[in-house]
Amino acid sequence: MVVESMLSVYKQAEGIRPADQADFAFYALITLSAIRHHHHTEEENYLPLLEPEFKAPIQEEHHLFTDVLHKLEGYLQEVTGIYPDAFKGPIPIKNAKHPLLSDPMLTHLEHEIGYLDAAKLRECGLPLSKLEAWETWELSMIKNLNPWVSLVFTVAHTPSNSYFPPLPPGMRSVLVPWIFWWKYRKSWRFCPQQEPLDIPKSRFTLPFM
Q: What domain of life is recorded for the organism (predicted)?
């Protein structure tokens, strides 16, 4: 989801018309905020729940690109007018492609897939109770998403028939597109189109589906 939104910003950044810059900047800002929130929850919630059995240099890798990420986030806050004095300096939106940001971030994401490989999680001896606590915390976080921003962003970057995020009936199909979408609809038009997942039919469903 976050990688897809990053790619969407990357592909569109240089072709944005001046009249659309503020709306696109808001979309890009939410993308960066999602990255920051993802890293924060990893460091403050996910990783502590899995320690001491699970150890990985995830936090150390975050620091390799955090500074550039914050500068770009400040610039976008200035462009959108959310915080007019958030950043002073001529950083163009296309700096989302800056190697000091993109290279270490993408390398980190590749590493993280390996760190969180199911086989490695089993090998480190994690008790089931810790994984259940992890799942419980994640579900509570999803239930508390800001419906106008975080919820719309999440739904917009996942296929319509995806099991993630687990939502009550009618939330994805009615409330998000017909109510929550409209407040920032000028920015959500930059979200990429989603293709349905090819999911085999099953008599089993997840909670809330």
A: Eukaryota
Q: Give the whole-angstrom CA distance, residue 17 versus residue 147.
A: 28
Distance in angstroms (rounded) separating the CA atoms of residues 182 and 180: 6
Looking at residues 122-140, what average pLDDT do you find?
85
- Sign of the dihedral defined by the CA atoms of residues 115, 121, 123, 127, in that order: positive
Residue 75 or 206, more confident: 75
Contact between 11 and 40 (Cβ < 8 Å): no
Tell me the backbone φ, ψ of residue 117, rounded to 5 degrees: -60, 140
End-to-end Cα spacing for the chain: 20
How many independent structural domains does the chain possess?
1
Is 201 inside any structural domain? no
pLDDT of residue 201: 62
Is the Cβ–Cβ distance between 2 and 153 less than 8 Å?
Answer: no
pLDDT value at residue 86: 46
